[in-house]
Amino acid sequence: MKIYAAKDYNDMSRKAGNLIAAQVTMKPDGVLGLATGSTPVGAYKELIAKYEAGDLDFSRIRSVNLDEYKGLSGDHDQSYRYFMNHNLFDHVNINKEETNVPGGLAEDPEAECERYNRVIQELGGIDLQLLGIGNNGHIGFNEPCDVFEKGTHVVTLTEETRQSNARFFSSIDEVPTHALTMGIGNIMSARKVLLLASGEGKAKALYESCFGPITPNVPASVLQLHSDVVIIADEAALSLIREKTQWEDSVYDN
Ligand code: PGA
């Protein structure tokens, strides 16, 4: 696990944008695992700017997103399909037919999860998986629980996650109660993982994920077992790691 310190959100986003851009340049027909939420928005803006400057070509890139709310259509402005279109896909030359998000309206969600596992497999796996981290340590919508779920599955969102995401909806009652998410196995089989964290609210989850016991109660802690994880976190998110480990440098390699 390598941790890179960023000054603030913008610095984190620039560093992340550079890393994802390098991946797209080095493997123009590669498979990107993409994430939603506030955290990656700045990195997506960086990618759009690089595309507009003529430095990036997404025409052969394929993508798979981590998750989708159950019950929301791709047109709903809080669906993750809508988020991806508006924050990245509509602004670069990616072929939208080669972008994948679990179907939130699938009549048979279990079958949709199986289909999504097959999509990832048929793409040959994920080259670079981008992740945010929840205040509770979740990755994708893999919420704290007793086991690491391997494949794509339907999950009941925790109250904490619904509260945290309520800021995007007009009321908490509108926040879906369930989601379809890639499992920990899907994420762990990505060849490279890039986790971004910004803000003090993430400090505890980030510390526990990097330095605490590996447990499904802190889903991101499983990343300690992955051989190629890069974390880019701003100083606010790093505050507890700084305090507990006395790490002062800008790169941590453990
Ligand atoms: P955020 O969410 O980027 O909106 O903080 C991250 C997550 O819940 O994974």
Helix count equals 8
**Tally of DSSP β-strands:** 11
**Ligand kinds:** 2-phosphoglycolic acid
Rounded to an integer, what's the Rg over CA atoms?
17 Å
How would you describe what is shown here?
This protein is α/β, with parallel strands linked by helices and 254 residues long. It has helices at residues 9-26, 41-52, 80-87, 109-122, 159-165, 184-188, 203-211, 235-245, and strands spanning 2-6, 31-34, 62-65, 67-69, 99-100, 128-131, 153-156, 178-181, 192-197, 229-234, 251-253. The strands form two sheets. Strands 5-3-2-6-9-10-1-11 form an eight-stranded mixed β-sheet, sandwiched between helices. Strands 4-8-7 form a three-stranded antiparallel β-sheet, covered by helices on one side. Strand 2 (31-34), helix 2 (41-52) and strand 3 form a beta-alpha-beta unit. The structure holds 2-phosphoglycolic acid. 2-phosphoglycolic acid binds next to loops.
Which features would summarize this protein structure in a list?
254 residues; three-stranded antiparallel sheet; 8 helices; binds 2-phosphoglycolic acid; alpha/beta
Secondary-structure blueprint of this entry?
Blueprint: E1 2-6, H1 9-26, E2 31-34, H2 41-52, E3 62-65, E4 67-69, H3 80-87, E5 99-100, H4 109-122, E6 128-131, E7 153-156, H5 159-165, E8 178-181, H6 184-188, E9 192-197, H7 203-211, E10 229-234, H8 235-245, E11 251-253
Parallel strand pairs: 1-10, 2-3, 2-6, 3-5, 6-9, 9-10
Antiparallel strand pairs: 1-11, 4-8, 7-8
Residues 37-39, 132-134, 138 line the site of 2-phosphoglycolic acid.
Summarize this, please?
Strand 2, helix 2 and strand 3 form a beta-alpha-beta unit.
